[in-house]
């Protein structure tokens, strides 16, 4: 309820108070919308990557309350937030420690409190942008203009034609140069985007200006919000020759020579030539695979880096469940990075997960990988029977194309609708009849007791049957469930089951 009240005050759909450059923890906004905003920063020269050291742990309570009092006059509500902020923390040894800084870890109101806190920084950057913005347009590039004038002179004097070799060489040389002066001292633009405590400022100007902006931002955060910038993560990157890291993406300014539709400030859009100064969003496939290597999906073999391997934790699952687990991992990676310019490099990630899935299936059934490919296919598929008796086939997912456009943000489901769908999905898993007697009423799920709870031998009693069919849970009716826990089904044979769930 506190979160809903704060959202109605600060971030309502009709009149949001937060900056349009803030994308973290807000409805219909996210990482993709933040990256999409960067793609509009045409001609940026320098990128200032900002990262606040231990932001959520170092929010000053007094500063936060003073910011809340600007909009909220009810002191009872303010005191309620004070109670959440000052709640003691339970340590590992069971003792309580007082909380003097930061917002509650995992608290549902922490994200919006963080946005309220950093809204002051957003407003400061907006004022800074207004202060530094100058010039209506850049001056023409004298080198480009010299080549064009020489070409026009030769044609006008009859010394060359439009199809002559000299004219083509001049046009090619001019096409490699920007038409305007990139480092025009009389032209300056500042761009800004923030997601939670990660922010980035783009500067169309000199490096000295970028360093001055970084210094002023550090001073404002320290004096006004009592926050410290991380020295090792707050960097100034040359956008044309280097890549800046933001939200897991690699951002830079580059690209080939193209003609694109560009919308200038206060003007209609038009087709213009872009000579390598268009924002570019890339993904580092090697970084992703290094994380998969840590998680056990690949390893180094015979000097070859990142060779796929069996995921041992998935071996105990059924065939279709193994494929679905790999699909969930692969789809998550692809859906996040599919907007990148080099999204085709994700094929390396897909190869690792695809063959790791095949190796996991071959490990489960004690067969070699070529035999697993014959049985399941190169993109493995497996079938299972649903609660309604339908045969459902799942296969390793392959994207229809590598790069996807930025999707239109969708309105999140209402809580009541989400709970209704969750309940319906939960009931569908319990729709199987009892595996022992075949009864279809009052079905529950029986789980093997975890080893950490004292069950050191899972191959005794009824659990021996579940181990034989490689299951960790079985649908059973309430009566059979009570008998299982009472030990009355310890001598039951696998052939005595009403059916063997697949």
Structural description of this entry:
The protein has 502 residues and is of the alpha+beta class. A four-stranded antiparallel beta sheet has the order 4-5-1-6, sandwiched between helices. The longest helix is centred in the first third of the chain and has 23 residues.
What's this entry about, in short?
Helices cover 38% and strands 17% of the residues. It is α+β, with helices and mostly antiparallel strands and 502 residues long.
Mean of the pLDDT scores? 84
The amount of helix comes to 25-40%
Instruction: Give me the secondary-structure category.
Output: alpha+beta
**Order of strands in the sheet with the most strands?**
4-5-1-6
Low-confidence stretches: 424-429, 450-456
Supply Rg. Answer: 30 Å
% residues in beta strands:
15-25%
Largest sheet: 4 strands, antiparallel
Q: What's the count of strands?
A: 17
Query: What is the oligomeric state here?
Result: single chain
Distance N to C terminus: 44 Å
What general outline do the C-alpha atoms trace? Answer: flat
Helix count equals 15
Per-chain topology:
Blueprint: H1 2-10, H2 31-38, E1 46-51, H3 61-68, H4 75-85, E2 89-90, E3 96-97, H5 110-132, H6 142-156, H7 165-175, E4 189-195, E5 198-204, H8 207-224, E6 235-238, E7 244-246, E8 249-254, E9 257-263, E10 269-275, E11 278-282, H9 285-295, E12 298-301, E13 304-308, H10 319-337, H11 346-365, H12 369-376, E14 381-385, E15 391-395, H13 415-429, E16 443-447, H14 462-468, E17 473-477, H15 478-485
Antiparallel strand pairs: 1-5, 1-6, 2-3, 4-5, 7-8, 8-11, 9-10, 12-13, 14-15, 16-17
Helix pairs in contact: 6-7, 9-11, 10-11, 11-12
């Amino acid at each position: 309820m506190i979160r809903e009240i704060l959202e109605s005050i600060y971030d309502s759909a009709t009149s949001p108070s937060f900056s349009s450059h803030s994308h973290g923890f807000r409805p219909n906004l996210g990482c993709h919308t933040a990256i999409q905003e960067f793609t509009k920063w045409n001609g940026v020269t320098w990128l200032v990557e900002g990262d606040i050291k231990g932001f959520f742990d170092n929010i000053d309570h007094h500063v936060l309350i003073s910011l809340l009092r600007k909009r909220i006059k009810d002191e009872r509500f303010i005191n309620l937030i004070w109670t959440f902020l000052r709640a003691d923390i339970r340590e590992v040894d069971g003792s309580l420690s007082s909380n003097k800084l930061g917002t509650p870890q995992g608290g549902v109101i922490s994200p919006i409190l963080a946005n309220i806190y950093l809204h002051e920084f957003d407003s400061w950057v907006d004022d800074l942008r207004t202060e530094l913005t100058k010039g209506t347009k850049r001056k023409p590039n004298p080198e480009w203009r010299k080549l064009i004038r020489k070409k026009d002179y030769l044609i006008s004097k009859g010394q060359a034609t439009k199809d002559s070799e000299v004219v083509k060489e001049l046009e090619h040389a001019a096409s490699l140069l920007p038409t305007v002066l990139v480092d025009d001292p009389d032209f300056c633009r500042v761009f800004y985007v923030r997601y939670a405590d990660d922010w980035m400022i783009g500067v169309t100007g000199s490096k000295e200006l970028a360093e001055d902006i970084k210094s002023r931002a550090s001073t404002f955060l320290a004096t006004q919000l009592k926050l410290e910038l991380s020295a090792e993560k707050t960097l100034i990157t040359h956008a044309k020759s280097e890549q800046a890291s933001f939200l897991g993406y690699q951002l830079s300014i580059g690209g080939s020579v193209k003609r694109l539709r560009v919308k200038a400030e206060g003007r209609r859009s038009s087709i213009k030539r872009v000579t390598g100064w268009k924002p570019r969003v890339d993904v580092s496939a090697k970084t992703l695979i290094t994380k998969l290597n840590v998680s056990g999906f690949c390893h180094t073999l015979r000097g070859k880096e990142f060779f796929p391997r069996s995921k041992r934790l998935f071996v105990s699952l059924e065939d279709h469940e193994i494929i679905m687990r790999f699909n969930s991992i692969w789809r998550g990676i692809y859906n996040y990075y599919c907007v990148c310019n080099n999204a085709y490099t994700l094929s390396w990630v897909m190869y690792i997960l695809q063959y790791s899935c095949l190796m996991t299936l071959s490990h489960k059934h004690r067969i070699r990988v070529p035999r697993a490919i014959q049985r399941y296919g190169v993109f493995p598929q497996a079938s299972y029977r649903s609660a309604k008796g339908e045969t459902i086939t799942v296969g390793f997912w392959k994207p229809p194309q590598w790069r996807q456009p930025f999707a239109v943000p969708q309105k999140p489901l209402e809580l009541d609708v989400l709970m209704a769908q969750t309940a319906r999905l939960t009931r569908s898993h319990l729709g199987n009849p009892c595996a022992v007697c075949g009864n279809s009423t009052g079905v529950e799920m029986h789980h093997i007791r975890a080893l950490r709870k004292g069950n050191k031998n899972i191959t005794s009693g009824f659990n021996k049957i579940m181990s034989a069919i490689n299951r960790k849970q079985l649908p059973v009716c309430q009566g059979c469930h009570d008998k299982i826990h009472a030990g009355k089904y310890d001598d039951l044979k696998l052939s005595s089951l009403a059916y063997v769930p697949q």
